[in-house]
Amino acid sequence: MLLGNALCGRLLYSLRKTGADIAVSAPLVELVREGGRIAGAVVSINGKLVRVRARHGVVLATGGCGASERWQQDLAPEAAITHTLAFVGNSGDGLDAGVAVGGDIDRNHKSPFFWMPASVMPWSNGRVATYPHIRDRPKPGLIAVNSAGRRFVNEGNSYNDFVSAMYKSHADGVPSIPAWLVCDRRFVREYGIGVIHPVWQNLGYFERKGYLKSAPTLAALAQKIGVDVRGLEETVREHNHYAATGVDEAFGKGSFALNRYNGDAANKPNPCLAPIVQAPYYAVQVYPAPIGSSAGLRTDGDGVVLDARGKPIDGLYACGNDMSSIMGGLYPGPGITIGPAVVFAYRVAMHATRSRADATREAVPA
Fold this sequence. Notes:
This protein is of the alpha+beta class. It has ten helices and 14 strands. The protein has helices at residues 4-17, 69-75, 93-100, 159-171, 185-191, 203-208, 218-225, 229-245, 257-261, 338-363, and strands at residues 28-34, 37-45, 48-53, 58-60, 105-106, 113-122, 128-132, 143-145, 179-184, 212-215, 281-293, 296-297, 304-306, 312-318.
């Protein structure tokens, strides 16, 4: 599955065909204002400061601030974010530059970030991997539980909704950050879990690393992961009843098309439900992790950055995650950052070239 990678590859190919200069590892230092408009930027290229003039305007598209601890604390201090899946370069440079020249951050979002449940794996080479849980959660035979050993969400829902449920359960007084994904030996063998691939597995390695917890009974597993023993046993018993009937009466796992698409069509009667009965039992810890930022610079419909009074900043644009998401922190589905990024990049380009052409015509004597 190439998805956004394929799109970026095609965009890069098209850009190279135009003969445009491409500079990598070129952090933005500051924007340049001349005569009341943004006329360029200072960037660091190979350690050397370079001033770049922009005839039509500057577009901020640095990827937002999903990896910035400072912006995480600023936008969501109550979230207590410890891990991120955002690219390390999404450090908020564009937001910093926009704010420095008067741009306004739109904070009126249901959530300032888009979320993914993630596990943390310390590899033997010293590298620590933060792993996104996308495909394992909807599969039949896995549940997510909080410290009470109880389910709190439809595990097959979108990753953003899953984390939202983690925060809600936590706020309701039941510690749910981190949460635990619980399954049995059959599930791990057939589907894998997190960084562990199915079929050929050295589970002892992952247990020694602390990534995977196992026990011969549910009670022993509950004690090992620090959740309520009775709660976990009752939850699994209830889940197994739902697996037999094919109807998740508690959270509706398998009742939505998205659930079923990511489930196992061969599993009957519900592609997302199977009993958890085959010892040993396993658990993996998951944390809320941003995959990108929703809050960003406020713009108009053409991507022009606005100040705190709602006035446009001439020559300055934003798109992608530097621009405040039109979704307001909601996440209807995968690609909800890429789609608007492409649309508003087009609108920015059209507005910038049109505005500059109009200004040039006005400057020519009749």
